[in-house]
Structure formats: structure tokens, C-alpha cells
Amino acid sequence: MRHVIIGAGAAGLTAARRIRELDSTAEIVVISRDEHVHSRCMLHKYLSGERDERTLNFVSPDFFEKNRITWIKSAEVQAIVPDRKNVVLGDNQMVCYDKLLIATGADSFIPPVGDFRTAGNVFGLRNLSDAQEIVKHIKPQGKVIIVGSGLVGMDAAYGLLEKKMDVTVVEMADRILPIQLDEAAGNEYKKLFEKAGCKFILNRKASETILDSQNNVSQLILDDKTVLDCDVIIVAAGVRPAIACTIESGIDVEKNIKVNEYMETSVRDIYAAGDVAGMSGIWPNAMKQGCTAAENMCGNRTAYEDTYAMKNTINFFGLVTLSLGRGQVQEGDKVVIREDSKCYKRAIIREDKLDSVLLQGNMDYAGVYQYLIKNNIKLKAEDDIFKKSFADYYKVRTDGQYEYNL
């Protein structure tokens, strides 16, 4: 049996490892456009100089050799041909498969603002190649504008502040990290970033660009006509699933590749996992999906069940925050806030159930809150959500282990 995996990220390599565990005789081929295996969660450390291509690797140096995996790197899949059960690479090389997994991840979305899509100094920050290009273009103490203050944008700011760059973040919302945090929690990070030298322009959008003679953006104009000088622009405006290889393959695609609970696409013997499948944008879930796909590729009918993905952990300047759930207050919700000098907590209770919780500075009982949200547990009217602990829900199994009792 020949398994071909497109993508060397969390989903792809987890699948490759699991296939080897399940089938010692299978032939496994991984195809990636990347030359290096890398954790995208650590790209800001590449910008800061704390890590290089070697130390971004999240698998052992002998991973491919030990698992007897053929790795075709620096290769782009141009087409998937299900009728012939092969994929075509950019150099016209054809790679045949019995089972195919698409784990190509996602790419940065660059909005059509001015010359963002054609200028030589505008980058996303999704892959190592993005980070490598940014590092090539930054100058000592140069001016960097980051458009968007979500996690990727603030990661980039953090890394470049470590390099003593002149960093300005432009955000269309009225606060930073607007999807992950409320105003109070976001302001704590804003103060820390400002202390490190970062500047913020909130409630503003990028509107136009001015190019220099080298086709680089030298000035960014905002929607209020503010003009900002820049050497590099990093756009952190979201991502799009990397689905280019599926064009004309017959695989059912909307915004992402459509899969069922077995990670199967609409085409027989082709699976998808990770960001490209659109089920979750977080690393642990991508690994679980890769593992589930591997089980099914090897004939073990296994459903993917962990669809919960509303979890973010943030740590800048030593201040840790965990957000669980949707985090958006709706009419009729009960919002509970506790705050002292060391921590900030906010819970959103909807229809007597914990919908979301935000913990900043103190992560105690995070596991209990996650369990309540994931399992849609109803709370009692007299419950104080911030006095709940595992002790309220546990029982002892016959083997002496503790487990939830709900």
C-alpha cells in the first residue's frame, strides 16, 4: 500500500507517523513545498533571531529516516488526478498513490489594498518562507507596519521588537486581539507592548500605498489620510485554506475541502486534514485529524469527534491568557467578571450554561471550565462559576482513578 501525504505540517506528519505505527510495510511519501519542517507557532522566534530553520523543527532530526518515509521537499503539487491515482508536481514528475492525504494547511490572505499584492516588501506570516523573506528585508531599526492585531500580528510585533525594530500596529477595531480578548484583557497586553516600544493606531484601516522605484511600499496611507513611512509591511488579516492543488480534481471544495467524520473527501481514497479541511485552526486538533485520517487510510474505520476548537492561549512578556469558547456577548447573556491585582477573569453564561471563559494571569481550573463548555453542562442558578473546581464533578472509578461525574 502506498500512502502519499501532501504537506509536512502537524496534520501531515502526525498522519505519516501513525501510518507507520499501523503498517510496518506501507510505503509512505510526504510531499511539501517547504524545505524545512517547521512549527508555524514559533515563526516569531525566527523573526527575533531566537530560532533558526533547524530549531523550528518539531520532529526529531531522524524522523523521516526512522519512520522510513520518503520526503519530496521543495515541491509544489500542481494537480491531483484521481482517475489515474497520481499527483503531478511542478517539474511534471508524477507520484502515484493508493491513498492520498491532503494536509496543505493555509496561506496568509493579503487583501487588495493599494499595491499589497504586488509590492516587494509586503508579506504575510504563515510559513517559514514568509519569515525568511521578512528577515531578508528588514533593516536595523527599520520601520515595520503590521496590519492587524490578532495573534499572528502580535506575534510578529513581539519578534520584531526583540530585534529593536520600529513597529507600528494598525488595527481596524478599537482594541488589540479583538477576536480573542475583551477590552480589559487586551489593554493589559497593549500596555506591555507600548512599554516595549510598540505603537498602535486603532480604529483605522489601510487604504492606499505609495511605491518607491524598487516596487516597494514606502508609505502606507490610512483611511483618515494619515501617512506612515515603512520599510516592510506585514499583513495579518487572516488565512485561506491552501486548496490550489485540488483545482479540476473533482474534489468537493467550498472555502475549504469538504470532509466527512472519517476525514474522507468526496473522492474515493482521498482524505484531508488540518487547516485545509476547515474544521479547526489549532495545532492539537490538526494532529488529531491527521491521526484519524491515518487510521482510516489504513482501514480502521474511525470517526473524528473533537470538533471543539475555540481555544487560544496567549503569552506575551510573561502575561498568560487563556480564552475558551466563542467569547462574544449576546443579548440575554450573564457576564461574570472577577479581577484583582494578579488576575482577570470573565465568564459568559448563556441559557444557564458556560459559553465562554477568559482567564488572564491565573489558569487555575481551566480544565474544569473547558469540560463544562465542551460538554454543554447546565449550571445551577446558585452556582458561582469562579468557585467551581474538579471537586464538584468527580467520582472514583473501580480502579481508583478519578473521573468526571456529570
Automatic annotation (TrEMBL):
<dbReference type="InterPro" id="IPR050260">
    <property type="entry name" value="FAD-bd_OxRdtase"/>
</dbReference>
<dbReference type="InterPro" id="IPR036188">
    <property type="entry name" value="FAD/NAD-bd_sf"/>
</dbReference>
<protein>
    <submittedName>
        <fullName>FAD-dependent oxidoreductase</fullName>
    </submittedName>
</protein>
<dbReference type="Pfam" id="PF07992">
    <property type="entry name" value="Pyr_redox_2"/>
</dbReference>
<keyword id="KW-0274">FAD</keyword>
<keyword id="KW-0285">Flavoprotein</keyword>
<dbReference type="InterPro" id="IPR016156">
    <property type="entry name" value="FAD/NAD-linked_Rdtase_dimer_sf"/>
</dbReference>
<dbReference type="InterPro" id="IPR023753">
    <property type="entry name" value="FAD/NAD-binding_dom"/>
</dbReference>
<dbReference type="GO" id="GO:0016491">
    <property type="term" value="F:oxidoreductase activity"/>
</dbReference>
<feature type="domain" description="FAD/NAD(P)-binding">
    <location>
        <begin position="2"/>
        <end position="290"/>
    </location>
</feature>
